[in-house]
Amino acid sequence: MTAACCLLGPQIKYKMADFKPLADELHKPISVIDTMDYGMMNGGKILDDALALIGSGRAS
Question: What's the whole-model pTM score?
Answer without folding.
Answer: 0.87
